[in-house]
Design brief:
By secondary structure, the protein is mainly α. It has one domain. The chain is built from 7 helices and no strands. Helix 4 packs antiparallel against helix 6. It is elongated, with a radius of gyration of 20 Å.
Length: 213
């Protein structure tokens, strides 16, 4: 999921430019009403791709915790809290600092780099989990719960959740600004991006809730 988000983040800067060409063609050849519908459809299709990847990160973390139902509710609450906190920090830093000193393209590349690091960390952690599962086969029964508790280090999960949230809000801010520049509609662009992200996040949240019942 994170690797897909990072890859799309790298491509998004150039894709928005191409969408600007499409939008310019529509502006010259269709009525105002159809132009606004085209405006919406372009944004919906474009944002839906990363939104599916981004919205799926937290549910996957939840599924990891569900695998071994040890303090499940407490852990899910902690991960969600850290993810939301990371989003808040990402919004502040990106809006007030990064845009000014790095610019749009560098921020997108930075966020993509963070996504790739998260993906790599997840792969390493998966190897760590496999090792623990092999070790548990030879462990005494009284030690099984302790092994399961260590299955995924809390610090690593919290770090993944934090930086995942951080990049999400960074992407939203940058894409909204670029969208505004290309399509000349700040309010509409922000509303569409917020709607699409919320829609796919709710779909993923519904998916994880079904697994916890």
């Amino acid at each position: 999921m994170e690797a897909g988000t990072g890859l799309f983040g790298l491509l998004s800067y150039f894709l928005f430019t191409e969408f600007g060409v499409v939008y310019g063609f529509l502006a010259d050849n269709v009525s105002y009403v159809y132009l606004k519908w085209g405006h919406f459809l372009i944004a919906f299709i474009f944002i839906s791709i990363p939104a599916v990847f981004i919205g799926g990160t937290f549910p996957i973390i939840g599924r990891v915790l569900i695998r071994h139902k040890v303090n499940l509710k407490k852990k899910l609450g902690k991960i969600y809290c850290v993810n939301t906190f990371g989003s808040s920090i990402g919004a502040l830093i990106c809006g007030f600092i990064l845009i000014r000193y790095l610019g749009f393209k560098r921020i997108l590349f930075t966020c993509a780099g963070i996504n790739f690091l998260i993906s790599l960390s997840s792969i390493v952690t998966q190897k760590y989990q496999s090792y623990l599962l092999q070790f548990s086969e030879n462990a005494e029964e009284k030690d099984i719960d302790q092994i399961k508790e260590k299955d995924y280090p809390n610090l690593l999960l919290c770090s993944i959740a934090f930086f995942s949230g951080f990049t999400v809000l960074g992407y939203e801010i940058i894409w909204t600004r670029i969208y505004t520049y290309v399509f000349k509609g700040w309010i509409i662009g922000f509303s569409i991006i917020l709607f699409v992200f919320s829609f796919w996040y709710c779909r993923w949240k519904h998916y994880i809730n079904e697994d916890t019942e």
